Automatic annotation (TrEMBL):
Mg(2+) binds at residues 66, 82, 84-85, 209. GO terms for molecular function: 3'(2'),5'-bisphosphate nucleotidase activity; metal ion binding. Pfam families: Inositol_P. GO terms for biological process: 3'-phosphoadenosine 5'-phosphosulfate metabolic process; phosphatidylinositol phosphate biosynthetic process; sulfate assimilation. Keywords: Magnesium, Metal-binding. Its cofactor is Mg(2+). This is 3'(2'),5'-bisphosphate nucleotidase CysQ. Gene3D superfamilies: 3.40.190.80, Fructose-1,6-Bisphosphatase, subunit A, domain 1 (3.30.540.10). The lineage of its organism: Bacteria, Pseudomonadati, Campylobacterota, Epsilonproteobacteria, Campylobacterales. It comes from the Bacteria. InterPro entries: CysQ/Inositol_MonoPase, Inositol_monophosphatase-like, Inositol_monophosphatase_CS.
């Protein structure tokens, strides 16, 4: 597993480097178009996707990426990739975008890596634990943190998206007396495993948006549940759309039933 994890880490870092080439406000090479679902696609997405596929292909494992979808829906093992999660945040130049890679086996993520190019924070997790590294400009490790040994004393946080989330989250946050934090992209998963709390997503997303973050949460002792069925998230390719979900850190797992009940109440 460590060899595959190292491949995924290298792929996210290389993709991040490609993205940052386009991040300058005066970069005339950046091209933007709209996909069928009206979401933006940029040259940075495509460059990051190419960098990832070049590295992950060495594993011999099939790759399903947002920019190159795997058609075989019955694969027991495959990479699930979002080369640039938070393209709208990238275009807004607020720094809240990341690269996400997960390895899926039997519909569950067995490893996940999220890299935040602007802050050069690398989060990764597998059966051996969950960690955060901060890299320097040469991609050398400055600091490494074992996320399972880090004190998480901010468990009264509720993370949600800057864009498109429903009023149900405000209702739940007020009912729990939690402080709401708005963050773009899958960085919300990173902050959840770093600080504790709850991440609620009651707006459309795709499997590649969430798989790496699910791995981080799971290997930190938390869980990500389908908000309607209360079951663990499944990452089969039959439907690429993700269900609405509730992500809980280890210290907020006891709130699962209460949050589920509040979610149902909020829809009445």
């Amino acid at each position: 597993m460590s060899e595959l994890l190292n491949l995924a880490k290298k792929a996210t870092i290389n993709a991040g480097a490609q993205i940052m080439k386009f991040y300058s406000a005066n970069n005339t090479a950046l091209k933007v178009c709209l996909k069928d679902d009206s979401s933006p696609l940029t040259s940075a997405d495509l460059a990051a996707n190419e960098a990832i596929i070049k590295i992950l292909s060495k594993s011999g494992i099939k790759i399903c990426s947002e920019e190159s979808i795997l058609q075989e829906s019955d694969k027991d093992e495959f990479w699930l990739v979002d080369p640039l999660d938070g393209t709208k945040e990238f275009l807004a130049r607020n720094g809240e975008f990341c690269v996400c890679i997960a390895l899926i086996k039997k519909a569950r993520p067995v490893l996940g890596v999220i890299f935040i190019p602007v802050s050069k924070e690398l989060f990764y997790a597998d059966e051996n634990g969950a960690f955060k590294e901060i890299l320097d400009n040469n991609d050398e490790i400055i600091k490494r943190v074992d996320l399972n040994k880090k004190d998480k004393n901010l468990d009264n946080l509720i993370f949600s998206s800057r864009r498109g989330d429903a009023k149900e989250i405000e209702f739940i946050g007020q009912s729990l007396n939690f402080e709401q934090r708005y963050i773009g992209s899958a960085i919300k998963f990173c902050r959840l495993v770093e600080f504790g709390g709850v991440y609620l997503r009651f707006a459309p997303s795709y499997l590649w948006d969430n798989a790496a973050g699910d791995a981080l949460v799971n290997f930190c002792g938390g869980k990500v549940f389908d908000a309607n069925s209360s079951k663990e998230m499944s990452y089969e390719l039959a439907d690429l759309k993700s269900p609405f979900f509730i992500a809980l850190s280890k210290n907020t797992l006891n709130l699962k039933d209460k949050i589920t009940q509040l979610y149902k109440q909020s829809k009445i």
